Give the backbone structure.
Amino acid sequence: MSRILRIIYNVIIFLILSATALVFLFPIFISIMRSFTPLTELHGAPETFFRMPASPTARNYADLLFTDFELPLLFPRYFLNSVLVTALVVVLQLWIATPAAYALAKVDFPGAGFLNRLLEAGLLFGGAVLFVNQYVVLNRLRLINTFPALILPLIVTAGVPGVFLMRQFIKQLPDDMIEAARLSGASHARICRDLIIPNIKPARITAGIFALTSAWYTGTNNFVYSEELKMLPSVMTRINAAVGVNSAVAGVAVALATVMMLFPLAAFLIYQKSVINIMAYGGLK
Amino acid sequence: MNNNRNITRRIRENIGVYAIIAPFFLLFFAFLAVPFVMTLIIAFTDYKGAGTFRFVGFNNFIILFRDNRTFTGGMGNALITGLVGLVASVLLAWLITMLPKILRGVFAIALFAPFFTPLAEGKFTLGIGFLAILAGIGTIPHERYEAAAIEGIPNRVHEFIRITLPAIKPHLLFAAVIQLGAVIAQAAKPHEYTDVFEIGLASALCLVVFIPLLIIYFALRKFGRCWQD
């Protein structure tokens, strides 16, 4: 009796979750389908309503790549900017954040408590509430409208959750391992490279993916005004605004929306195991 | 005096630590801590992005509370969205952990995937908090449930309220900070003010956004062990 009941329970739960998953994933599916729908079919079709494209086409992507639609530069330029900035943010972030996470988690040095509280407080604000005065700081450093202005603020705002995550993960590593290394004369930098990094791979992957997602969608376009330095989020804003005025841009807009979500989504799917499992080991306890 | 020398010695001993954390914390100070302190000061001025400014007391805050572009509309909706997201995260994570192991991963991926797509106005995704809650429920030892079954807990809903929820308190608080922080920051729209160079107003807005987050943070430190270890 109770076994049958249990199976019934599980079937109901399975159905509820399946329905929710469908609702969640449907917008992604629609977006991909719309990107292959020819411009003539797009007209008049509401965004949320789904209709299979009668004659699927890759034309929207070709238009996105090769035509100078509403923007001064061609799409590949913005795309490369976005890829380069995001890649640099992720790499630099992991490179400088891992030692910081190790020191905060495992080393007792004057100021450790203060810096730990500071990091936790930093978790509370996103870039959106800080960008005004980040501008002022960049201005003082004479970095407005330079390439570093795109990267430096993002390393912090996109990276703080990752540092927190790595810190929690490193805390779970045994102390004796590190103490033994210290006693045999290894420097902190050396311990970090040879002992910590190999042991926190899933945490670093997850931190990297969160930084990637955040950097890719944020784009610090407020800090540059040269068109040559602009990135995809600014393109997206302008294209979406242009659709209302010039309906010919609609095809480009749907292709762009799909290209935008491709990278973070692909990164997640490739490393899903690390991302999903990470919280179970380290994270919080 | 002795104490002072002690601290200097300890700082000198740890010079290697400061060296390895310097790159991150220099950027952290420059682009997070310093801008935050500036926000704190500018919020009480009529700074317009250039030229001189003067202190105006709480004037900016009064203007903000009267401007229904920001508060009455946006903030209320943001809070509701955040809370709904939190409740949904808990319920969905709970349902997932009740399924056989093979299915858990599949649903976790399917439900978390939208997080990686662009955030549109009013669009709803489960955030990092969902993962934390999922992990929290997953780490509750099985004996807890068995003991409860012996004591006679009538059904799964009771079990959820009496065992699961109290056990994941730290995860819940962590999720609350992340979830509410994200939606509130998004709803605040300081752009509306910076676009017209009302830097003082924009800073005041950032500060008001920060206060509920600060309260949650202190609640976390008080009730959740998760920040300590």
Notes: Chain B touches chain A through 85 residues (CB under 8 Å).
